[in-house]
Amino acid sequence: MFESKLPNLGTSIFSQMTALANQFEAINLSQGFPEFDAPELLKKQLNHYVLEGVNQYSPSSGVPRLQQQIAQLAKRKYAVEIDAAQQVTVTSGATEALFVAIQALVREGDEVIVFDPAYDSYQPAIELAGGKSVNIALHAPSYAIDWQTVAAAINSKTRAIIINTPHNPSGKTLKQHDINALKALVIEHDLYLISDEVYEHITFDKQPHLSVLRDEELFARSFVISSFGKTFHSTGWKMGYCIAPTDLCEEFRKIHQYVTFSSFTPAQHALADMLEQQGEHVDALSEFYQQKRDVLSNALQDSRFSILPSEGTYFLLLDYSDVSDLNDVEFCQWLAEQAGVAAIPLSVFYQHPSNDKVIRLCFAKNDQTLIEAAHILCQL
């Protein structure tokens, strides 16, 4: 009998809900991908490099032009000097970067603190490295971190903490007091940090993104991970990157070279052109998505759902306590099959399912799609 390394994992909820959406022709606000296309310049330059024959392996750490543009973006956004050649690694999506960072850090028996609701790739990667995920549950409506609880969870086996800001699925962002508390614990207990910042350019109401890159002492112990898919509406390209201090970056690259070796070469050149020629796209992203958040929120004002504040990402949470007594998985199945809107239940993001009656909607969609979905939800 074959023995699975991940016996408790099955098909992801994202695949399940998208399949339901397709089966019942529901409006799909479940899986987190944009309904609109990547920028024209990006597509044009990708085609250009493919036709020009730029189709062979790139350096394992990334095309140098793209590494430089990433370093310049970090400097412009966070006033930090990054050594592009020694500290920036281009990866095949942020999920690869997360996996490699975890493999670089975690040894047999190590513990890693994770905050639930959490992106579903963290725990499997920790377990595959021989470690244990120590999940600290956050709850609606605030999803605030109790740092005293975190401190109590730290012991001699604790190796690292994973944070995600802006946070998927809650839409919350870490504040300066969170960064201060995190830094104190990381330094006191000699821990490492993996900072998942894939939604770094999508924060709302003029609130800044507090990247770990802003803090020199914290960055010295950190892998900071981001995603071009989120920034340039191109999730299917699977292009991301990791910024880390030189010593950690060296370890990261040892593993990266045996996972993907290098990433899609024409796309790297196209992304470098995009960052160089249309940097304003990044700067306009928060306003672009805030408008979509507000379209959906305003259209839901007359519904029986309670709308939880979204401070970043392209997700909005709804409390459906006044709509149904079903648990969130059953409610999302009913919603897709009977009402015609596909959403994601929050409990699947927890190690121990939460009893909060909360679902996640993706608003990276055309305005008309959002208005049509909200119209259906307002009828419930």
Low-confidence stretches: none
Number of strands: 13
- The global form is globular
CATH superfamily of the largest domain: Type I PLP-dependent aspartate aminotransferase-like (Major domain)
CATH topology of the largest domain: Aspartate Aminotransferase, domain 2
Query: Which percent band covers the strand fraction?
Result: 15-25%
Question: Mean of residue pLDDT?
Answer: 96
The total domain count is: 2
- CA distance, first residue to last residue: 48 Å
- Architecture of the largest domain, according to CATH? 3-Layer(aba) Sandwich
The Cα radius of gyration reads 20 Å
Summarize the structure.
Its cofactor is pyridoxal 5'-phosphate. The protein is α/β, with parallel strands linked by helices and 380 residues long.
Topology:
Layout (H helix, E strand, L loop, with lengths): L12 H12 L2 E2 L11 H12 L12 H15 L5 H4 E4 L2 H12 L5 E6 L5 H7 L3 E6 L9 H7 L4 E7 L11 H13 L3 E5 L19 H4 L2 E6 H4 L8 E4 L2 H11 L8 H13 L2 H20 L6 E3 L6 E5 L8 H12 L1 E2 L1 E2 L12 E5 L4 H12 L2
Parallel strand pairs: 1-11, 3-4, 3-5, 5-6, 6-7
Antiparallel strand pairs: 2-8, 7-8, 9-10, 10-13, 12-13
Helix pairs in contact: 1-14, 2-12, 3-12, 5-6, 5-11, 13-15
Protein name: Methionine aminotransferase
InterPro entries: Aminotransferase_I/II_large, Kynurenine-oxoglutarate_AT, PyrdxlP-dep_Trfase, PyrdxlP-dep_Trfase_major, PyrdxlP-dep_Trfase_small
Family: Belongs to the class-I pyridoxal-phosphate-dependent aminotransferase family.
